Structure formats: structure tokens, C-alpha cells
Amino acid sequence: MDLLDTTLLVVASGALIIHTIFLLMAVLRAWRGENSFDRLIGLDLTGTLILCILVLVAVVGTVSDYNMNVNNAIFIDVALGLAALSYLITIALAKYIVDHRMF
Amino acid sequence: MENLSPLFKILAIFFLVAGTTFSALGMLGVTRLPDVYTRLHATGKVSAFGAVLLLVAAILITPLTVWKGLVLIIFLLLASPVVSHAISSAAYKTGVPMAQATRDDLAEHVQRGAGKDV
User: Fold this and answer.
1) What is this structure's pTM?
2) Domain extents for chain B?
3) Residues A62, A66, A69, CA angle at the centre, nearest 5°?
């Protein structure tokens, strides 16, 4: 590995560690919010940060060539499903808190 | 990964740093801002810029078909404002208080506190 590959691996791993710390902060916000909408913001932020972590796992696995027989682009498919589910969950919960019924 | 052009790697490093910077600014805003509505303003940065820039870096590096990444980017750019509007509209109808509000333009159109409770 030359210098460029090493720099890319260090930057991607650092971004993965930083996003994991952000995920802990978002879970803490969803656990100890001051009202229900604060917790809902924490829940939405948790879904977004898990999506960021999945994308970064795909990048780190491709750059480091750790496991050659795993297609690392499969994590993007997981992220696509997670994005759709997180969107529906947040909208349904926001409507449910206001109206006290779902539909 | 071996037969990748060095230009793609430099662009991927740039997009990774930019996405992490936007995520850090959004989390700083979520931690420091005083209000539900202002915190939503900071949450949109994490979703609309942080995740999208990291996805651009992933498209440049990983063995991924470009269209799958573009579908996810377009979905994120469409879904993030809708989620922010849904949460803030629900919070306004429920009557969550604002911090240091000088004027309220929506008060003559929507009855505030029309929902049941917090």
C-alpha cells in the first residue's frame, strides 16, 4: 500500500469511529429527551447515523481488503432498506403523537 | 481497488472529510441549541449533507453500481425535508414551546395546541 491508500484507510476509519461516538450521543438523546418530540428527533438521528456507519463499513472493508470473498457493496443494500424503514417510522410516529391515531 | 485511478482516491478522501465535518456540525447543533425547532434545523444537516457526501465517497470507492447509490442519494434528499417538516408541524400542533420567539406567523392559520398533549 502506498501513501494514498494509507491516508484513505486512516480517514475512513477515523470517520467510522467519530460516527460511532455520534451514534451514542443520539441514542442518549432518544433515551433522555426533555419531551416526546426531542426523543423523536433522537430516533430519526439514530437511523441516519446507522446509515452513515453502514456506508463507512462498506468503504473501510473495500479499502482494507480484509475479507476478499465478501462483496462489500452489499452494505449499501442494507442501508437502502434502513433508509426507507426509518422514514416511514418517523412519519408514522409524528402523526401518531399529534392525533393519537395512526390513519 | 488496485486498478483504481488516484484521482478517485483523492476525491473520496475529500468527500469523507466533508461528510464527517457536516455530521460533526449537526451533532454540535443538536447538543447545544435550546429548542425542538432549532434542533431540527441541525438534524437536517446530518441527514441531507453528511450521509449524502459519505455516499458519494462510497460510490467512488466501493465496487458498487452507480445507479444504486444514486437512488439512495435521491431518496435521502427527498425524505429529509419531509421528515423535518412532519416533526416540526406535529410539535407546533401539540404546543411545544419555542425559545425566545419574537413573532409567530403561523398563529393566525393553525390553532396552536390543537393536539392532545405532550
Assistant:
1) 0.90
2) 6-94
3) 80
CA atoms of B116 and A13, how far apart (whole Å) = 46
Q: Do B54 and A55 touch (CB under 8 A)?
A: yes
Instruction: Please choose, from the candidates B67, B34, B19, the residue with its C-alpha nearest in 3D space to the C-alpha of residue A55.
Output: B19
Q: Render pLDDT for B65-116 as a digit per residue (tens, 0 to 9).
A: 788 889 999 999 999 999 999 999 899 888 888 888 778 777 777 766 665 5
**Gap between the Cα atoms of B49 and B112, Å rounded:** 32
- Report domain A3-99's class: mainly alpha
Distances, alpha carbon B2 to alpha carbons A54, A56, B6, in Å: 23, 19, 10
CB within 8 Å: B20 and A100: no
Q: Which amino acid is at A71?
A: N
| In contact, A76 and A58? CB cutoff 8 Å | yes
In Å, how far is A81's CA from the nearest CA of chain B?
Answer: 10
